[in-house]
Amino acid sequence: MNFQLTEEHLAVQEAAREFAQSELLPGVIERDSEAKFPHEQIKKMGDLGFMGMMVDPKYNGGGMDTVSYVIAMEELSKVDASASVSMSVNNSLVCWGLEKYGSEAQKQKYLTRLASGEVLGAFCLSEPEAGSDATSQKTSAEPNGDHYILNGTKNWITNGSSASIYLVIAQTNPSLGHKGISVFIVEKGWEGFVIGKKEDKLGIRGSDTHSLMFTDVKVPVENRIGEEGFGFTFAMETLNGGRIGIAAQALGIAAGAYEMSLAYSKERKAFGKPISQHQAIQFKLADMATQIEAARLLVYKAAWLKDQGEDYVYASAMAKLYASEVAMNVTVEAVQVHGGYGYVKEYHVERLMRDAKITQIYEGTSEIQRIVISRKILK
Ligand code: CAA
């Protein structure tokens, strides 16, 4: 067993760390307060190869492994989880699904632009009445000659207005249940496709989360990914990998809050000495560090299993479940270590605490991860 990162992994870590400090940190508080999407920063992340890290270079990707991807996600999420969720959705949910299951024509037309960061993608599964219960899709795509007619509403879509390319899951044959669900590539600007209201969120406020409405949108048959009826499996398999990305985001949020708490505890004095010299704070720091290390091992293992071509469904669910709980625990403690300063925006940890909560909700709630894990245990 080798726990050491390779030269390549260390280089990715260094590049992501440097980018986070120089490009994401300035303005992150303002973007959060004003719910402003980090357009400029995401563009630069594309130029640096962060938006299609695992995609084959022949489709403009970085050709890197999943371990590199989680390392980058962790570093960027320490500073700006709103930028990192855009990156995660583009990499894990959109590029991965297209590269694995798309036709050569779809890859040439869409993947090449998504992987280079020229355009952003969105993954559209959730609906007003189909969140955790993803099989209950109401959005329909009715076959009509050389195209489908798409109707329905999607909710809580990350990159909702900033994306140009949308992977939309829809019912093509309701009588078949989840086996009658298909997946389509839809472009922004097509007639009948309307971007709905932007959500005013507790955390990840810089990311743009929207509802989307489709009214009689004509989707060409060649924009269906895989066979009719393949959409639910596509969504589940894509989310298995997506959960590794969100687990890495949660890990980064926790690690960012911990690093700030450690630094603050050495500077802030109380009762005549730095607060890091008080056991009450030392025990908090020790617990934070231990939980983060355990989460990191789960996240890296899930990524490693994926890179080895082994089953990673169980590992990714465990990594997301645990890392998101650690993100919540650690950020709450980080606010406590900072005392009154922790409760104001300037010190960042209150934002990280708000951002942490979503990691227990999106790409499958903690309860969904427990379902995935317990099914495996009891099989
Ligand atoms: N991997 C691969 N296949 C899976 C799977 C998985 N993790 N989970 C289920 N499946 C397959 C099953 O094998 C089954 O296939 P067959 O019929 O061929 O045997 C099929 O899917 C149906 O499975 P179930 O009968 O188990 O389905 P279910 O209705 O009981 O629910 C569920 C399964 C695990 C609860 C699923 O609905 C689920 O994962 N829900 C959560 C959805 C989710 O994560 N949404 C997040 C939205 S996306 C998002 O947040 C992105 C963003 O913008 C940030």
TrEMBL record:
Belongs to the acyl-CoA dehydrogenase family. Residues 231-377 form the Acyl-CoA dehydrogenase/oxidase C-terminal domain. This is Cyclohex-1-ene-1-carbonyl-CoA dehydrogenase. It is an enzyme of class 1 (oxidoreductase). Its cofactor is FAD. Gene3D superfamilies: Acyl-CoA dehydrogenase/oxidase, N-terminal domain (1.10.540.10), Butyryl-CoA Dehydrogenase, subunit A, domain 2 (2.40.110.10), Butyryl-CoA Dehydrogenase, subunit A, domain 3 (1.20.140.10). Residues 6-118 form the Acyl-CoA dehydrogenase/oxidase N-terminal domain. InterPro entries: Acyl-CoA_DH_CS, Acyl-CoA_Oxase/DH_mid-dom, Acyl-CoA_Oxase/DH_mid-dom_sf, AcylCo_DH-like_C, AcylCo_DH/oxidase_C, AcylCoA_DH/ox_N, AcylCoA_DH/ox_N_sf, AcylCoA_DH/oxidase_NM_dom_sf. Residues 122-217 form the Acyl-CoA oxidase/dehydrogenase middle domain. GO terms for molecular function: acyl-CoA dehydrogenase activity; flavin adenine dinucleotide binding. It comes from Algoriphagus boritolerans DSM 17298 = JCM 18970. PROSITE patterns: ACYL_COA_DH_1, ACYL_COA_DH_2. Keywords: FAD, Flavoprotein, Oxidoreductase. The keyword DNA damage does not apply. It holds the Pfam family Acyl-CoA_dh_1. Its EC number is 1.3.8.10.
